[in-house]
Write a structure and sequence with these properties.
Blueprint lengths: L3 E5 L9 H17 L4 E4 L13 H11 L4 E8 L5 H14 L4 E6 L6 H8 L2 H6 L1 H12 L20 E5 L2 H10 L3 E3 L8 H11 L11 E9 L3 H19 L19 H10 L4 E3 L1 H15 L3 E5 L5 H21 L1
Parallel strand pairs: 1-2, 1-9, 2-3, 3-4, 4-5, 5-6, 6-7, 7-8, 7-9
Helix pairs in contact: 1-2, 1-12, 3-6, 7-8, 9-10, 11-12
Length: 333
């Protein structure tokens, strides 16, 4: 069975605080390391009341400082929000502090609303269109220094931090294949182009100094509990959150409810159910079956799980159950 990793957004729960959310990320990373997860990634989002990982490189350092062996990185840094030099310096610093443990996943979406994106980017159109060039520039800044190189990232140069491309469409699949980079698909919330994007990436892959063959990571929303009923109950927090996102009424991460009846309109239920098409929600046997089916469908090399659970103890238990499922599937393979 393929390795599992964790995607964390440092959720700020209703009644909680940013400090508590960042402490929960630290606790979750420690538990992930103890349970054999390969990576712990944090996502860049801005202006969202329920997400505390906006200053992603700082939160990565917070998590990496608490752990010893698990790889820690970004899932992802939204590169159009930044200059490649700034990201090279940040991740070069992280690589120096935590050698051999830092990943740099890159996305080209803003990770926020239009107005906040304008405040971050200033020139939105140019930044988005320049994404391929920015990736190549960032690769050069993190690689060996050439004789005629005019701009050098210090720290950063010759750190060779592994770069991943993240995406939910064909664009990043094409680019990751062309550049010979590992590719992570955001199937945890954008299922539509999953299989066609993976096919494009694998067909167009060109070996590179970083990677000699295609390497795919796929994402799932995951809620594991002792029973299917409890897991479905816990999952209502994520369902409520997605309804709020559709309504452009972003708030803090809500507690679960006994029923979503009356909390969403029929079209909103269709939207959420579609976005969560590949969600792995259930008790131990159910999640083993769903994981095995999803891995067989995608032929992925790694699985990364986002665990949107309100109660921290339940989130930690879910992490343990997913690790048990991974071990069980590995033993049966």
């Amino acid at each position: 069975m393929i390795p599992f990793s964790v995607l964390d957004l440092s959720p700020i729960t209703e009644g909680g605080s940013v400090a508590q959310s960042l402490e929960n990320s630290r606790r979750l990373a420690l538990a992930a390391e103890k349970n054999g997860y390969k990576r712990f990634w944090l996502a860049e989002h801005h202006g969202m009341k329920g997400i505390a990982s906006a200053a992603t490189s700082i939160v990565i350092s917070h998590v990496a400082a608490a752990t010893k062996s698990i790889r820690v990185g970004s899932g992802g840094i939204m590169l159009p929000n930044h200059s490649p030099l700034v990201i090279a310096e940040q991740f070069g610093t992280l690589a120096a502090l935590y050698p051999g443990r830092i990943d740099l996943g890159l996305g080209r979406a803003p990770g926020t609303d239009t107005r906040t994106a304008q405040a971050l980017r200033r020139n939105m159109e140019a930044s988005s269109n320049n994404f391929p060039n920015d990736v190549v520039e960032l690769q050069a800044l993190l690689g060996p220094v050439s004789e005629d190189q005019k701009i050098i990232a210090v720290p950063g140069a010759d750190s060779n931090v592994p770069i991943w491309l993240l995406g939910s469409s064909h664009f990043s699949a094409h680019l990751a294949g062309m550049l010979g980079l590992p590719f992570a698909f955001a199937s945890h919330f954008a299922p539509d182009m999953l299989l066609s994007a993976l096919e494009i990436y694998r067909e167009r892959f060109t070996p590179s100094p970083q990677l000699d063959k295609p390497h795919v990571m796929v994402g799932v929303m995951g809620v594991a509990a002792d029973t299917d009923e409890e897991a479905n109950y816990l999952f209502t927090s994520m369902q409520q959150s997605f309804v709020a996102l559709r309504r452009n009424a972003r708030g803090r991460f809500p507690p679960p409810v006994q029923s979503m009846d009356g909390l969403w309109a029929p079209d909103e239920k269709i939207f959420v159910d579609h976005a969560m098409r590949y969600a792995v929600v259930g008790g131990p046997e159910t999640i083993r079956r769903k994981i095995a089916s999803f891995v067989d469908l995608t032929k992925a090399d790694e699985l990364i799980v986002s665990m949107p659970i309100f109660d921290m103890d339940k989130r930690l238990h879910s992490l343990e159950l997913f690790a048990e499922a991974q071990r069980s599937l590995a033993a049966a393979a």
